[in-house]
Amino acid sequence: MQLIKAHKLVCAEVLMTVALIVFIALCVRGRVRDDVPLSDLKGPVLEQLAGAENMKEAGAMKLRSLYGLDANDYAEVLLYIPVSNMDAQEMLLVRCRTEEQADAVAAAMRKRIGDQTGIFESYGVEQMALIRKAVVDVQGTYCLYVCDLNSYQAQSAFRRALTR
Amino acid sequence: MKETRSRKRGNHAYYRILAGLFAVLFLVFFVLNLVLPDRTLSVREKRMLTAFPAPQLDRVLEGNYSNDFEDYASDQIPFREFFTDLKVYADSLAGRNESQGVYRGRDGYLIEKMETPDDVVVGRTVDAMRGFAELFPLPQQMILVPNAVSVLKDKLPLWAPTADQNAFAERVAEALDGSGIGFKDLRDTLQIAGLDGVPLYYRTDHHWTTDAALACAPAVLETLGRSFTAKGALLPVTAQFSGSLSAKSGLGVRERDTISVWQPEDEPVILVTDSAGKRASLYSWDGLNGSDPYTVFLGGNEGLVRIETDRIGAGRLLVFKDSYFNCFLPFLLDSFETVDIVDPRYYSGDLLMLMRQNEYDQILYFYNINTFSADTSLALVLGEAVEQAGRK
Amino acid sequence: MNRRRFRSLFPYLLTSVLLIALAAGFLLSRRPVTGADVSDPAGRVYVSEAGERSAAEAQSQIRAARKSASSAGPTAEPSGTAAPPPTEPVPTETLPTAPPETVPPETGPAETGPAGSDSEPRTDAPPESPAETTADPEPPTEPESSAAPAPTTSPGPSPETILASLQEQIRTLNIDLFTPDELASIRRRFDGAVFTGDSMAQGLVSFELFDENHVKFQRGASVGEFDPQIQAAIDTLPDYFIFFTGCNNVSTYINDPTEYYRQFVSRIEWVKRALPDTEIYVICMLPASDRFIQYENYHVARSPEYDAQLKLVCQDTGVHYVDCHWMVRQELYLEDGLHFNLAFYTVLIKFLAIEMGL
Amino acid sequence: MVFSSITFLLYFLPVTLIAYYVARSVRARNIVLLIASLFFYAWGEPVYVILMMISICGNYFFVRFMDEAREEGRPVRLHLAFAVFWNLAILFFFKYANMMIGLVNRLGGFSLAELKLSLPIGISFYTFQALSYVFDVFRGQARCQKSLPAFALYISMFPQLIAGPIVKYMDIEERLAKRSITPAAFGKGAEYFILGLAKKVLLANNLGALFTQISGTVPGERSFLMVWLGALAYTFQIYFDFSGYSDMAIGLGYMLGFRFPMNFNFPYIAGSVTEFWRRWHISLSSWFRDYVYIPLGGNRVGTARHIRNILIVWALTGLWHGASWNFVLWGLYYAFWLILEKYVLGGFLARHRAAGHVMTGFIFIIGWVIFAFTDFSQMGAYLGQMFGIGAAGLADARTLYLLLTSLVTLLIAAAASTPLVRALYYRTAEKCRPLALALMAVTLVLCLAYLVYQSYNPFLYFRF
Predict the structure, then answer these.
(1) pLDDT at res. C297
(2) Which DSSP symbol is given to B250?
(3) CB of D311 within 8 A of CB of D333?
(4) Are both A89 and A38 inside the same structural domain?
(5) Contact between B269 and C180 using a beta-carbon 8 Å cutoff
(6) Count of C-beta atoms within a 10 Å radius of residue C53
(7) DSSP assignment of D304-363, as one string?
(8) Is C106 inside a domain boundary?
(9) Rounded CA gap, B249 and B247, in Å?
(10) Model confidence band, residue D149 (pLDDT cutoffs 50, 70, 90)
């Protein structure tokens, strides 16, 4: 009897410690880093894109006209647009200053999908294939918009680079 | 503890009534808060009030939902205006005369403080202007309009700290030296007009009045190589104007300003083209009755507005501006055939193409100091054009 | 209340009075504001003639001022006038298209159109040119444009040489695109023009040849489905109104080409009524690529038949029909085989400039 | 969730109190209160509520099984040590891990990546309460709590969960099982709550804004008078923030039938540092005294070991307040003064009460500057300017403006940090009841007004 009684206490101790360690692990792993510069993120995400070669980097004016966002409000911005504007490949990486900003950027990205659909809907067959696969993803203060054949691979590369 | 025992015999009657008062206050407020319908717009603050935020799992898990709900709860509290006024009243009793960067000055004037300018930002803007001037060596003028915080310094509360607009204007003048861009600070013109009793700034808004713009018209047109000879009168169109500084700070909610409009005797025929299409009048009368009456001048936020007049051959002007220019525009119409007005904060077109398409005779930068000292859009728009020109 | 009790209660009464005074002060400060009415000391009220004038009047007055100034002095820039129509362009090899099944149109153009056309419709006689003409595109007929006033030919190469070089570029398929300065001058010359149509017109914006103020399009719309865009185009009060529509109309009016005829006529009449002294141009219905017809949509093969209807519309309403069939090449299509690339649009615009005499 | 928010005042509190009074039996009320408390905590920390539950279950089972084992005479000292270690490990990992990593990196030259973990709210409070339960039961001062919900309620009760006071288990044990509420007690609770809310919203927040403005100014533009004004503002802010929360907690306790211990007893009228620490955050210092200082021997040991005890206890007290070295320095700063008073200044202070008050005043104002700046260079600059080194002149227009516009608030704050205001209020309550009631109602409405205004951020419409 005493043996079981003694065991009960030890079991409780072990069980609770395991629970604690599991919780800590989940917390640490789940945490998104916020110290990663966009230059580190650019490589892994871009190399996933199928249409990377016919895309070119665009400046703050394009960011404003396409997304209605002002580049100065954010820590870093990286925008890639198609060389010929009859294509739909596009990628936007924004590192916000606060998480609240990330919500507004994500909303602008979703609106961009709507705009692109409006443009290519009735006749852009390949373009619509890309737009249907477009992805908007927010990880902490980082926002990603990808419209490409391999958007999902780009998204997982984006997430891998940000978690521990 | 010694201290709690002494209250043991305390006056229970008082605490029972207090209990009742507290319960009633909270119950009444709780019920009212649930029963009264949510409002969508606060006219006083000129903004939309937060609607009930539906809980989404990821927002809740990130802990952001609690902030959304707090915004909703305080936005939709019954008698919201009563509470905000009470806070402002209590502040004035406690001697505070500044709220959200706006001072409550003498004679009912609300005056906006000037934040210390970031010289890097201003430097970038001036460099972009110089680069643009090299690219398009047209005659160009920079007009800098000081704000009430500098011109109506005597109306500020005692010792109220603010950055120095005159020193800032001199720094900009120095930076533009030798760039081929003329520089004119309207400080002296306004001060003289002020001495003549001209009402220079609105009490509840951060803009200057049309009277002040009229007083400066001769000086500005002179820098553009023209003379202001038009005769006419300034006629009031509204006396109900409660401006943006009152909305921003909650102060001066009982003050009302008058907006006047220039009525020239010989009015030029004009055609205004903007994103909404073409119209024959400069003024937007539904803007006057909307939530911001100042938009009577030229309407809302337009990236590019083209004005064509029947003064043929009087020259083609390109203007980079902020909202201070809107009420000044009527005084230019006699002196130019077309006036293209670009507001860099909302312009997303191709400036280089605009320059190539139209042969402008003159370029005018027209800014007030508060906006110019913190502006990043002008550098963006000019810089893009210069860079594109370099690439092609 | 004896003196001692009063003296002991005095501070509280004083505080109560102070509290009530402050509360009263606050409530008074929240009285509703009765603003002064708008009164000018001299009693004048702002009246603006500009306010009464409509945009169209303002524009015409300004144009009149420009014309009088330009006739008076050389300073004004040349106003847009129609250049002399091109002489006989040499049509190159004809376009191989499948023979369209002939569906003789039963009735003439219907009277009723959405805007009730009051132009002289060809009421009874069926259009003489039966639909089964061979697909061989006749050379661009003489557009019956009203004789324009003495044209001031713009300096630089004459329209004929430009047209010849365009045809050469099409034949050799090495088409030089716009340089920025060329595009700027094209935009300046087309400043008074507005395009309207479906995704064909939209190409002008996607390739950044013109901005949104000059192209009002609705992707995928056939002639009866882009009235809002036509209205928007009318609102810009243009000097030149250009329809640029594509093969959507074939599938929409597949079993009734004359309905297409009727719809198009009523739209043109509407524009003519809204803009009496604006010249209207209609770009021909360009065919889809062969591979598109084979794999995607065999209906579209009948596009020449609808193009013929379009030519009739132009003849009947007296507007310019711009025939661009000669510049169509399989290599100039985009991957989707239905739309054209930048090179094609560049040639189209240069040709249009000649046609319109800009 | 925090007490000073509209969500708490107009949504959470009414619903909870209504549900609480509708439930008749204490058991039902405990359940209602437990659910409300877990919701209260989860509202702001949806993830870390699980951590608190782990802490609750852990402590519950450890102590229960240890109690059974002890009744059967088996030694539990080892398990007790494990329980204490387990609780401290949670606190260490979530609060102090980054601090220690930084230390290790600096000392050992490693470059371990910092854990980007946010600090769970109230973890220091509920960990210390759990430890007090473990010690009280182990020392026989309290019986082991058989019911898990009751124990969970003790740890997570929302009034004292976020900002204390740290309630020892033995002080609350019997009220967990049996308690009643009278209208007078509810009224008493309402009074404490309104006064606490006023301290927090009307005084602490406004003076906090003043300090933020001053400490945010570039050092080169700060005059001598300005830095002292800032230090004074922070001194009042930290006091009215902490004591405001404690008063609200005590008030809510009254409304729910509990009696929480007084946490602040006008510390700023102390005549010596020793007396200051008997009035400041009483529940914390008594926790350290009962569970750390006395077990270490307290002052019943030789001078050297007594000094060591004071240094240890006060370093830990400092560290408890925040995970950065300036808090430890703040703790040691007070240890130094306590030792000095104990062995050197004792007699002098007894004789010169007035000098004692002034000296203590300067000591805790300087102490709060150490507390306020986690960055040592900023702290050094600020302190230097307070002693005239590097200050931009005696005073300038900006300083005078800040003083002028906050004078009224500072005067009220000074009065409210002495028993004067409360004494006046109690006499009014007895002598002229309607005025006292009116003052209470006005204060509550004013607090609501200031809370509503916090969200007053009109869309900067005029920016166009």
Answers:
(1) 66
(2) S
(3) no
(4) yes
(5) no
(6) 18
(7) HHHHHHHHHHHHHHHHHH-SSHHHHHHHHHHHHHHHHIIIIIHHHHHH-HHHHHHHHHHH
(8) no
(9) 6
(10) very high
As to burial, measured by CB atoms within 10 angstroms (0-12 exposed, 13-18 middle, 19+ buried), residue C174 is exposed
- Domain ranges (residues) in chain B: 12-107, 117-391
Distance (Å) from the alpha carbon of A23 to chain B's nearest alpha carbon: 15
B213-245: per-residue pLDDT in tens?
999 999 999 999 998 887 888 888 888 898 889
Residue C242: the pLDDT is: 94
At D218, list the tokens.
């570039």
Task: List, for residues B311-343, the tens digit of each pLDDT value.
Answer: 888 899 999 999 999 999 999 998 999 999 999
Quick: pLDDT tens for C21-35: 999 999 988 887 776
Range in A13-17, C3-7, D414-418 with the lowest mean pLDDT: C3-7
Residues found in chain A: 164
A21 shares its domain with A68? no
DSSP A78: E
- What span, in angstroms and rounded, lies between the C-alpha atoms of C93 and C351? 18
**Annotation marks residue D321 as catalytic:** yes
CB contact under 8 A, A123 and C335: no
Total structural domains within chain A: 2
**Separation of alpha carbons D157 and C236, rounded Å:** 69
Q: Do both A148 and A130 map to the same domain? A: yes
Contacting residues for C156 by C-beta, under 8 A, at least 6 apart: none
Q: How far apart are CA D72 and CA D79, in angstroms?
A: 15
Rounded to 5 degrees, φ, ψ at C23 are -60, -45
Q: By the 8 A CB rule, do C270 and C116 touch? A: no
Q: What CATH number is associated with residue C227?
A: 3.40.50.1110
Please indicate, yes or no, whether residues A16 and A74 belong to a single structural domain of this protein.
no
Domain membership of residue C332 (yes or no) is: yes
Closest CA–CA distance from residue A61 to any residue of chain B (Å) = 6
Please state the pTM of the whole predicted model: 0.82
Domain check: are A3 and A25 in the same one? yes
- Amino acid letter, residue B230: A
* Pairing relationship of beta strands B257-264 and B232-241 according to DSSP bridges: antiparallel
Q: Can you tell me which residue has the tokens 């510069």?
A: A37
Q: Which of D79, D321, D352, D357 is catalytic?
A: D321
For residues A60 and A44, state if they share a domain: yes
- ipTM exceeds 0.90, yes or no: no
The alpha carbon of residue B91 and the mean position of all alpha carbons in its chain are separated, in whole angstroms, by 25
Instruction: Kindly state whether residues A1 and A81 are assigned to the same domain.
Output: no
Could you list the residue range(s) of the whole structural domain that residue A4 is in? Answer: 1-30
Tell me the backbone φ, ψ of residue D104, rounded to 5 degrees: -60, -45
As a whole number of Å, the end-to-end CA separation of chain A is 47
Range of the domain at C228: 177-356
Closest in B64, B348, B376 to A99, CB measured: B64
Instruction: Please determine, for residue C87, whether its predicted confidence score (pLDDT) is greater than 80.
Output: no
Q: Classify residue B113 by its DSSP letter.
A: P
- Distance from the Cα of D173 to chain A's closest Cα (Å) equals 24
* C111 part of a folded domain: no
Please tell me whether residues A24 and A42 are part of one structural domain. no
**Residue whose structure tokens are 């557009």:** C143
Closest CA to D334 of D320, D351, D352: D320
Looking at the complex, does the CB of residue B245 fall below 8 Å from at least one CB of chain D? yes
Spell out the domain ranges in chain D. 6-178, 185-453
Q: Give a yes or no: residue C210 inside a domain.
A: yes
**8 Å CB contact of D61 and A12:** yes
Q: SS3 letters for A14-43?
A: HHHHHHHHHHHHHHHHHCECCCCCHHHHHH
Q: How many independent structural domains does chain C possess?
A: 1
Six-digit token pair at A57?
Answer: 């980097």
DSSP type of residue B270: E
Q: Is D262 on the interface with C (CB under 8 A)?
A: no
Please give the Cα distance from A27 to A21 (Å, whole number). Answer: 10
Within the 9-68 window of chain D, which residues sit less than 8 Å (CB to CB) from chain B? 9-11, 13-15, 17, 43-47
